[in-house]
Amino acid sequence: MTDTTTTPISSSPASHILEPKHHHFMKQALRLASHALHTNEVPVACVFVHSPTNSIVSYGMNSTNDSLSGVKHAEFRGIEEILSKTCSLPEFQTGGGKQPIEIFKEIELYVTVEPCVMCASALRQIGIKRVYFGCGNERFGGNGSVLKINDDPQVKDLFTGYVSYPGIYRKCAILLLREFYTRENGKAPEPRQKKNRVLKLDEFPEIKWKDYLTEEEFLRFYGLTNRESFQNNTDIIVPQADENEEADLFDTLMADPVQDISDIIEVSSQPLCLANKKQKLQL
Length: 283
Ligand SMILES: [Zn+2]
Hints:
By secondary structure, the chain is α/β, with parallel strands linked by helices.
């Protein structure tokens, strides 16, 4: 699976990961995951973004505990909302306008944890444009950790698959999961020192980039400056980011127990507006 760009890697932009929008949208997904955590759900959440307009068109949080249904994963809620909105468009009801298949090819997913095999397959079947995720899903991952449904050539369907980029706020996504499982196990959470806390690299599993991407795909997105990360299975380096940014973000999320997500709900409740006018993000 290769990205659509045909420009040589050496003349690609320095690094797409430096685009603030990727961090912005993953932060929204992490806020939702934190909200899920505080409602006793596994903290996995996502936002679906219409890429031509930079707008969040739906979101999802795990609700497997509340619903007692093992298939109520974050991605499914988001997909269903987009389908529902599409069917509500006046032009769709009169037999015109874009079909879901055309809409999903303009939509990107930001999800805190790698989609499981079930969700990875669903995302492929709807023809999602691209996926960005935080940490890998070692037990059930469908984008490379266990199976690579997203671009397995043996899977025969309408689409050739999609590329997915891991590692965006990976440590924060892991910390949220650890917080959940610590609570699940009934252990008292360890006190966190907010200031001067340093995340030691060895506290986190390595990220095996080759499980998810070819080297060419990696370099096109993360830039040549991160080549060593690909080879050494280490997190990418984002030059302008503070080294404690992820710890601080986690502390911020934990400091607000209910995590007001009304802004995300409001923006994603708007009808689909597919005019190609990019929104200016408040980053
Ligand atoms: Zn899933």
